[in-house]
Amino acid sequence: MQLNGQSVSRETQDRLEHFVALFSKWSKAINLAAPSTLADAWQRHVADSAQVFQLNPGPKRWVDMGSGGGFPGVITAIFLAELGDGWVHLIESNNKKASFLRLALRETGARGSVHSVRIEDGPAIIPSCEAISARALADLDKLCDFAEPWMLRNENNRAFFHKGRDYAAEIAKARGRWHFDLLEHRSVVERDSVILEIFNLQRLV
Question: Which UniProt keywords apply (predicted)?
Fold first, then answer.
Protein backbone atom coordinates (compact mmCIF):
# COMPACT_ATOMS: atom_id res chain seq x y z
CA MET A 1 0.00 0.00 0.00
CA GLN A 2 1.10 3.56 -0.78
CA LEU A 3 0.33 6.45 1.58
CA ASN A 4 1.44 9.89 0.42
CA GLY A 5 3.73 8.18 -2.05
CA GLN A 6 5.45 6.04 0.59
CA SER A 7 5.08 2.29 1.08
CA VAL A 8 3.12 1.09 4.11
CA SER A 9 3.28 -2.51 5.31
CA ARG A 10 0.21 -4.73 5.34
CA GLU A 11 0.29 -4.84 9.15
CA THR A 12 0.29 -1.04 9.42
CA GLN A 13 -2.44 -0.79 6.80
CA ASP A 14 -4.60 -3.20 8.83
CA ARG A 15 -4.06 -1.11 11.96
CA LEU A 16 -4.94 2.10 10.14
CA GLU A 17 -8.08 0.56 8.65
CA HIS A 18 -9.19 -0.70 12.06
CA PHE A 19 -8.62 2.74 13.52
CA VAL A 20 -10.72 4.39 10.79
CA ALA A 21 -13.54 1.94 11.53
CA LEU A 22 -13.39 2.83 15.24
CA PHE A 23 -13.21 6.53 14.45
CA SER A 24 -16.27 6.33 12.18
CA LYS A 25 -18.25 4.39 14.79
CA TRP A 26 -17.42 6.69 17.68
CA SER A 27 -17.94 9.83 15.61
CA LYS A 28 -21.65 9.01 15.54
CA ALA A 29 -21.79 9.37 19.32
CA ILE A 30 -19.24 12.06 20.14
CA ASN A 31 -17.82 14.94 18.13
CA LEU A 32 -14.40 13.67 17.04
CA ALA A 33 -14.17 15.74 13.85
CA ALA A 34 -16.22 18.02 11.64
CA PRO A 35 -19.13 15.96 10.21
CA SER A 36 -18.34 17.17 6.68
CA THR A 37 -14.96 15.41 6.82
CA LEU A 38 -16.14 11.98 7.96
CA ALA A 39 -17.00 10.62 4.51
CA ASP A 40 -13.41 11.07 3.39
CA ALA A 41 -11.69 10.31 6.70
CA TRP A 42 -8.90 8.32 5.05
CA GLN A 43 -7.65 11.23 2.96
CA ARG A 44 -8.73 14.20 5.10
CA HIS A 45 -7.45 12.79 8.38
CA VAL A 46 -5.31 9.65 8.06
CA ALA A 47 -3.19 10.63 5.07
CA ASP A 48 -2.92 14.20 6.31
CA SER A 49 -1.80 13.03 9.76
CA ALA A 50 0.65 10.46 8.37
CA GLN A 51 2.74 13.30 6.95
CA VAL A 52 3.99 14.14 10.44
CA PHE A 53 5.65 10.77 11.01
CA GLN A 54 6.85 10.70 7.40
CA LEU A 55 8.60 14.04 7.96
CA ASN A 56 10.17 12.85 11.21
CA PRO A 57 10.46 9.05 11.12
CA GLY A 58 12.17 6.86 13.65
CA PRO A 59 11.53 5.58 17.18
CA LYS A 60 11.09 8.92 18.92
CA ARG A 61 9.18 10.00 22.00
CA TRP A 62 6.31 12.27 20.95
CA VAL A 63 3.89 14.57 22.72
CA ASP A 64 0.66 15.06 20.77
CA MET A 65 -1.17 18.09 22.14
CA GLY A 66 -4.98 18.20 22.06
CA SER A 67 -5.26 14.77 20.45
CA GLY A 68 -9.05 14.92 19.93
CA GLY A 69 -10.01 12.23 17.43
CA GLY A 70 -6.50 10.83 17.28
CA PHE A 71 -4.99 12.91 14.51
CA PRO A 72 -2.06 12.86 14.23
CA GLY A 73 -1.23 11.18 17.57
CA VAL A 74 -2.78 7.74 17.03
CA ILE A 75 -1.52 7.63 13.44
CA THR A 76 2.03 8.29 14.65
CA ALA A 77 1.62 5.65 17.37
CA ILE A 78 0.49 3.11 14.74
CA PHE A 79 3.61 3.76 12.66
CA LEU A 80 5.74 3.33 15.78
CA ALA A 81 4.12 -0.06 16.41
CA GLU A 82 5.80 -1.37 13.29
CA LEU A 83 9.17 -0.16 14.59
CA GLY A 84 8.56 -1.72 18.01
CA ASP A 85 10.04 1.37 19.65
CA GLY A 86 9.19 4.99 20.37
CA TRP A 87 6.09 6.29 22.15
CA VAL A 88 3.37 8.91 21.78
CA HIS A 89 1.97 10.73 24.81
CA LEU A 90 -1.49 11.89 23.75
CA ILE A 91 -2.89 14.80 25.77
CA GLU A 92 -6.67 15.17 25.68
CA SER A 93 -8.63 16.80 28.51
CA ASN A 94 -12.06 15.75 27.22
CA ASN A 95 -12.85 12.49 29.04
CA LYS A 96 -15.05 11.04 26.28
CA LYS A 97 -12.41 11.67 23.64
CA ALA A 98 -9.72 10.32 25.98
CA SER A 99 -11.75 7.11 26.39
CA PHE A 100 -11.94 6.75 22.61
CA LEU A 101 -8.20 7.30 22.28
CA ARG A 102 -7.40 4.65 24.89
CA LEU A 103 -9.63 2.15 23.10
CA ALA A 104 -8.06 2.98 19.74
CA LEU A 105 -4.51 2.51 21.05
CA ARG A 106 -5.42 -0.77 22.71
CA GLU A 107 -7.26 -2.28 19.76
CA THR A 108 -4.68 -1.27 17.15
CA GLY A 109 -1.66 -2.20 19.27
CA ALA A 110 -0.29 1.31 18.76
CA ARG A 111 2.56 2.59 20.90
CA GLY A 112 1.06 5.36 22.99
CA SER A 113 -0.71 6.39 26.18
CA VAL A 114 -3.40 8.95 26.94
CA HIS A 115 -3.18 11.70 29.55
CA SER A 116 -6.56 13.23 30.34
CA VAL A 117 -5.19 16.56 31.57
CA ARG A 118 -4.93 20.14 30.39
CA ILE A 119 -1.99 20.72 28.06
CA GLU A 120 -0.50 23.20 30.53
CA ASP A 121 -0.28 20.38 33.08
CA GLY A 122 1.40 17.98 30.66
CA PRO A 123 5.05 18.89 31.34
CA ALA A 124 4.64 17.93 35.00
CA ILE A 125 3.75 14.33 34.09
CA ILE A 126 5.67 13.94 30.81
CA PRO A 127 9.25 14.94 31.64
CA SER A 128 10.68 15.05 28.14
CA CYS A 129 10.13 14.23 24.50
CA GLU A 130 11.89 14.44 21.16
CA ALA A 131 9.02 15.67 18.99
CA ILE A 132 5.72 17.51 19.41
CA SER A 133 2.64 17.55 17.22
CA ALA A 134 -0.72 19.33 17.09
CA ARG A 135 -3.49 19.57 14.52
CA ALA A 136 -6.48 21.92 14.51
CA LEU A 137 -5.75 23.02 18.07
CA ALA A 138 -4.77 26.71 18.34
CA ASP A 139 -2.90 29.48 16.56
CA LEU A 140 0.88 29.26 16.32
CA ASP A 141 1.51 31.78 19.11
CA LYS A 142 -0.51 29.67 21.57
CA LEU A 143 1.07 26.44 20.33
CA CYS A 144 4.48 27.91 21.13
CA ASP A 145 3.23 28.64 24.66
CA PHE A 146 2.14 25.02 25.05
CA ALA A 147 5.32 23.55 23.54
CA GLU A 148 7.88 25.78 25.27
CA PRO A 149 8.45 23.65 28.42
CA TRP A 150 9.33 20.57 26.39
CA MET A 151 11.37 22.54 23.87
CA LEU A 152 13.48 24.03 26.68
CA ARG A 153 14.21 20.60 28.16
CA ASN A 154 15.57 19.22 24.88
CA GLU A 155 17.35 21.61 22.53
CA ASN A 156 17.00 19.08 19.70
CA ASN A 157 13.22 18.90 20.06
CA ARG A 158 11.11 19.70 17.01
CA ALA A 159 7.45 20.59 16.75
CA PHE A 160 5.20 19.78 13.79
CA PHE A 161 2.02 21.84 13.45
CA HIS A 162 -0.61 21.46 10.72
CA LYS A 163 -1.75 24.84 9.44
CA GLY A 164 -4.21 26.08 6.80
CA ARG A 165 -4.11 28.88 4.28
CA ASP A 166 -3.74 31.67 6.86
CA TYR A 167 -0.51 30.25 8.25
CA ALA A 168 1.62 33.23 7.13
CA ALA A 169 -0.36 35.59 9.36
CA GLU A 170 0.04 33.19 12.28
CA ILE A 171 3.80 33.08 11.75
CA ALA A 172 4.00 36.88 11.68
CA LYS A 173 2.01 37.16 14.91
CA ALA A 174 4.07 34.49 16.67
CA ARG A 175 7.35 36.16 15.73
CA GLY A 176 6.25 39.12 17.84
CA ARG A 177 6.74 36.99 20.97
CA TRP A 178 9.03 34.18 19.87
CA HIS A 179 12.26 33.44 18.07
CA PHE A 180 12.26 30.11 16.23
CA ASP A 181 13.75 28.41 13.22
CA LEU A 182 11.15 27.29 10.74
CA LEU A 183 10.74 24.84 7.88
CA GLU A 184 7.54 25.02 5.86
CA HIS A 185 6.46 21.67 4.42
CA ARG A 186 3.77 21.89 1.76
CA SER A 187 0.96 19.45 2.43
CA VAL A 188 0.69 16.66 -0.12
CA VAL A 189 -2.94 16.17 0.92
CA GLU A 190 -4.56 19.58 1.44
CA ARG A 191 -4.13 22.41 -1.04
CA ASP A 192 -2.93 25.66 0.55
CA SER A 193 -2.02 23.82 3.77
CA VAL A 194 1.38 23.29 5.35
CA ILE A 195 3.08 21.53 8.20
CA LEU A 196 5.26 23.97 10.10
CA GLU A 197 8.40 22.44 11.60
CA ILE A 198 9.54 24.58 14.53
CA PHE A 199 12.86 24.29 16.38
CA ASN A 200 15.22 26.41 18.49
CA LEU A 201 12.21 28.04 20.14
CA GLN A 202 12.96 30.98 22.47
CA ARG A 203 10.60 33.43 24.14
CA LEU A 204 11.24 37.10 23.33
CA VAL A 205 8.73 38.79 25.66
Answer: Cytoplasm, Methyltransferase, rRNA processing, S-adenosyl-L-methionine, Transferase
Q: Is 135 annotated among the ligand-binding residues?
A: yes
Range of the domain at 53: 2-162
Is 73 labelled as part of a ligand binding site? no
Secondary structure (H, E, C), the chain: CEECCEECCHHHHHHHHHHHHHHHHHHCCCCCCCHHHHHHHHHHHHHHHHHHHHHCCCCCEEEEECCCCCCCHHHHHHHHHHHCCCEEEEECCCHHHHHHHHHHHHHHCCCEEEECCCHHHHHHHCCCCCEEEECCCCCHHHHHHHHHHHHHHCCCCEEEEEECCCHHHHHHHHCCCEEEEEEEEECCCCCCCEEEEEEEEEECC
CATH number (domain holding residue 41): 3.40.50.150
Tens digit of pLDDT for each residue in 82-101?
Answer: 999 999 999 999 999 999 99
Total number of domains constituting the chain: 1
120 is in an annotated binding site: yes
Please check if 68 is assigned to a binding site.
no
* 28: in domain: yes
